[in-house]
Amino acid sequence: MIAMTTPEQLSQIIKHLAETVAQEFSSLSLVDLNYKPSPDSWSMLECLEHLNRYSRYYNPALAKAIAHNTCENCVPSITYSWLGRKSLDMVRPQNMKKHKTVKHMNPNNSQLGRATIEEFLQHQQELAHLLYDAKKANLNKKAVPVEFFKLLKLRIGEALEFVTVHQERHVQQALRVKQLLAKQAAA
């Protein structure tokens, strides 16, 4: 059973993620930011680039869905479809099972720099604005096409939660990479 999440709760998570990324990664060298524990794993910047690729799709899709589905007395709670529940369960940080990402969303072996962090933080600002606007939207409207199969649609609330939870998952992954780097440096 998924507990209902509100746009306000999601906003707090987004704010925390932006602060964490700014504090934990901004001062690291590019060599450190691109450190990979193994050839098939992602570096800290690759984790953030993966999220940037999703944000490039979902932020505009959410903006369009929210703008076209406003209502006067919206109920702030959402109900979950099977697709929404499945999508959320897959990306929750507590779900440590690895999932293969679609090829164009996989940043493995990308040449990345500090602009990756700046773009991530910009996407967080955009998402914070979307969450504010979502307070005046019908969160239960199926209006956000799934990135890899656009015939399927998530409800606006599900999509907002999916994007947020997905970001939590990969920021935590990037933090684990930073810990591995610190252990290696200490050894």
Automatic annotation (TrEMBL):
InterPro entries: DinB-like, DinB/YfiT-like. It holds the Pfam family DinB_2. It comes from the Bacteria. Residues 22-174 form the DinB-like domain. This is DinB family protein. The lineage of its organism: Bacteria, Pseudomonadati, Bacteroidota, Cytophagia, Cytophagales.
